[in-house]
Design brief:
It is built from 9 helices and 6 strands; from the N terminus they run ααααββαββααααββ. It has helices at 2-7, 20-26, 32-57, 67-70, 90-126, 151-166, 170-175, 180-184, 197-256, and strands spanning 72-73, 79-80, 128-132, 142-146, 262-263, 269-270. The protein starts with a helix and ends in a 7-residue tail after the last strand.
Length: 277
């Protein structure tokens, strides 16, 4: 009879789904399978705690074994066991430190190249001035030294440079448009009057547009300079840290080979005794 009852297909009773409103308000509801896993984990931990309590209650305070002499515990009373790692030999450690030193030297060279490239880019963007031999020392940015054979050649080069400095460049002429006040009064760059009001309005609009473009270019140039300066400072700091690391690594290798002295754990300074020659 039971076999016939099992042969009949019966309905699978599924768990009711959680309504959408309750899920938004209370979160995902715990299902029966979630509760089963949580209860199983709780019961296993409960059994483990019970066994530990029994061991602690039945512990013999006079119990001793020689393994207790070599075993260690931390400040919480937990036993510290070896992980099975074997210590490397002195030659292997020295070889590894040599490889580390080679890698650090490679990174230092890369960082130095980047720093020099950023410095050249910064000088190219900001521009450099020409310094004549025996001239003033007030030049900003990069400097270009010119060596003259005679005193007369030096003076002629200085005069030519002074003339070039007095004459405005093409970029300066472009960056200095007509003033708005002169345009409003109807004056052009040569001081002549314009009678056409449309020409005055066009010149004024052109001047305003150029001023806006110059202001935007100045902001962009300033932002770029700040970014380059921050990158340069970061590269300088990184290079200093790598140099200090290389120095410390070399000191460790020298200590391992007993080629230099140092300070021991007791704070006593010592040095390698060299053979008299």
């Amino acid at each position: 009879m039971s076999s016939m009852r099992n042969a009949v297909q019966r309905r699978n009773h599924r768990e009711r789904a959680q309504p959408k409103q309750r899920e938004e308000k209370w979160g995902i509801l715990e299902k029966h399978k979630d509760y089963s896993l949580r209860a199983k984990d709780y019961n296993e931990k409960k059994k483990r705690i019970k066994i530990l309590r029994e061991k602690a209650a039945e512990r013999n305070p006079d119990e001793f074994s020689y393994g207790m002499l070599s075993s260690k515990t931390d400040k919480h009373g937990r036993k510290i066991q070896a992980r099975g790692n074997t210590s490397l030999s002195q030659d292997a450690v020295n070889l590894l430190k040599t490889q580390d030193a080679g890698y650090i030297r490679t990174v230092i060279q890369q960082t130095r190249r980047l720093r020099l490239k950023m410095e050249e880019e910064y000088l190219l963007v900001n521009g450099g001035s020409i310094k004549v031999l025996g001239g003033g020392h007030g030049a900003k940015g990069g400097q270009h030294l010119i060596f003259a054979e005679t005193r007369e050649e030096q003076e002629s080069i200085g005069l030519a440079q002074a003339k070039r400095d007095l004459q405005p460049s093409v970029g300066d002429r472009l960056e200095q448009p007509d003033r708005i006040e002169d345009i409003e009064h109807g004056l052009n760059t040569s001081g002549q009057l314009h009678d056409d009001p449309r020409h005055i309005m066009l010149r004024k609009a052109d001047c305003v547009q150029r001023l806006k473009q110059e202001r935007a270019a100045r902001k962009l140039r300033k932002r770029g300079n700040e970014s380059r300066q921050s990158k340069l400072s970061a590269l300088n700091a990184r290079e200093k840290e790598l140099l200090a690391t290389e120095k410390q690594l070399g000191f460790q290798r020298a200590r391992m080979s007993n080629s230099i002295g140092g300070v021991n754990k007791a704070g006593v300074k010592w040095k390698v005794r060299e053979r008299k020659r």
